[in-house]
Specification:
- The protein is of the alpha+beta class.
- The chain has three helices and six strands; from the N terminus they run E-E-E-E-E-H-E-H-H.
- It has a four-stranded mixed β-sheet with strand order 5-4-3-6. Strands 1-2 form a two-stranded antiparallel sheet.
- It starts with a strand and ends with a helix.
- The model has no long low-confidence stretch (mean pLDDT 93).
């Protein structure tokens, strides 16, 4: 395993084994990122990574996970977005004991 230099937002420059770095690549748009746990403070560090950084990390022995964007991003959205008042009213509805019956009655056509 190789040693990788990275930057922790709290500790500054750190060195970590490449096997401790996880690379993530989006299959839909090829965006890359990596995540690691700082060996000093144990905080998670996540950063965007261009193709060259991804290539170097993978060559050094970092594991790779390929992921996809949520399919909901491609769904058609019909109607206006919820307002703050509508969201609050829904929250208040969920606090009642009969919330499920009320929601079910709203969806029957």
């Amino acid at each position: 395993m190789s040693t990788v230099r990275a930057t922790c937002t709290d500790c500054g420059d750190i060195e970590i084994a490449s096997g401790e770095v996880k690379v993530r690549i989006c299959a839909d748009d090829n965006r890359g990122s990596y995540v690691l746990r700082c060996p000093r403070c144990t905080m998670a560090v996540a950063k965007a990574a261009g193709p060259r950084v991804v290539q170097l990390l993978v060559a050094a022995g970092s594991s790779v996970t390929v992921w996809r964007l949520p399919s909901e991003l491609a769904e058609a959205h019909v109607g206006p977005p919820l307002t703050h008042d509508e969201l609050l009213a829904f929250h208040q509805l969920l606090e009642g004991d009969d919330w499920f019956a009320q929601v079910a009655s709203m969806t029957k056509g």
